[in-house]
Amino acid sequence: MARAKKSKTMSKTKAPARKATGRQKPIEVYFWPTPNGYKITCALEEMGLPYAVKPVNIARGEQFKPEFLKIAPNNRMPAIIDPNGPGGKPISVFESGAILQYLGRKTGKFYPKDERKRVEVEEWLMWQMGGIGPMMGQANHFVRYAPGKIEYAVNRYVNETRRLLGVLDKRLAKRKFVCGELSIADFALLGWVRIYHRLDLRPEEAPNVVRWIKDMEARPATRRGLDVKVAEAGKIDIAKDKEAWKLLFTQGARA
Ligand SMILES: N[C@@H](CCC(=O)N[C@@H](CS)C(=O)NCC(=O)O)C(=O)O
């Protein structure tokens, strides 16, 4: 594993990067260690693509820097720049689902070409992007970050998360991975689903999901993806850090 190059514009990192071999330039991954960020590092590791981590310190406002907004206009990470994009020219991609589809098409891995199988993977990928991600994100917000305990909001989002995990649990009762074989849908889901316990959900509520999390985490490549660290992230507790809290949770008011 090679050290990631330090970015001039973003936070410094000691995060590892898969070594670029030959003349292939690494894919730049604009990253912060969150459930959405890990989707991409896990996929890149499983696909065996060289990459360099470019930290975007979202607790310090680096997602609003003009150079980042050029590639990610929604001021959210992850985003990537692939120097070897279509036609051999660089391409940038934002939105984790779009990045996973791009990487799947680029490598031909974990994104089947057979139309029926592809549709199935896309169903579960979109289910993650439109369901699990936003609902667990809101549940996490109201459980951990909202000032005071707003019971109605906690119940609303934790219960919806519980329902979604029930759907996933049924699906995984008869399949090793979400679509039978390992796919980009698994990479999309893992980051959020593996932290279900932070939302007061118990493992016995979804035993097949718990089994799948263990299987995924035991894969050496996925493990490497989940182990990508950014030193600075560990120093900031968003719940207690006033600057981070204001930057992340009062954006509508800022606009
Ligand atoms: N739908 C987006 C969501 C990405 C997202 O919410 N990223 C968060 C961290 S997990 C972020 O960058 N937040 C920065 C901010 O809120 O300004 C995706 O899947 O890429």
Describe the structure.
- With 255 residues, the protein is α+β, with helices and mostly antiparallel strands.
- The chain folds into two domains: 2-109 and 224-254, Glutaredoxin (3-Layer(aba) Sandwich); 115-218, Up-down Bundle (Glutathione S-transferase Yfyf (Class Pi), Chain A, domain 2), CATH 1.20.1050.
- It has ten helices and six strands, in the order βββαβαββαααααααα.
- It has helices at residues 35-47, 66-69, 96-107, 115-145, 151-173, 184-193, 207-217, 220-226, 242-249, 251-254; strands at 2-3, 16-17, 27-31, 51-55, 79-82, 91-94.
- The strands form two sheets. Strands 4-3-5-6 form a four-stranded mixed sheet, covered by helices on one side. A two-stranded antiparallel sheet has the order 1-2.
- α1 runs parallel beside α3, α1 (35-47) runs antiparallel to α6 (184-193) and α4 (115-145) packs parallel to α6.
- The model is unreliable at 1-9 (pLDDT under 50).
- It binds glutathione (GSH).
- The site of glutathione has 12 residues, from loops.
Would you summarize the structure shown here?
The protein is α+β, with helices and mostly antiparallel strands and 255 residues long. The chain has helices at 35-47, 66-69, 96-107, 115-145, 151-173, 184-193, 207-217, 220-226, 242-249, 251-254, and strands at residues 2-3, 16-17, 27-31, 51-55, 79-82, 91-94. Glutathione (GSH) binds at residues 34, 36, 58, 63, 75-78, 95-96, 133, 248.
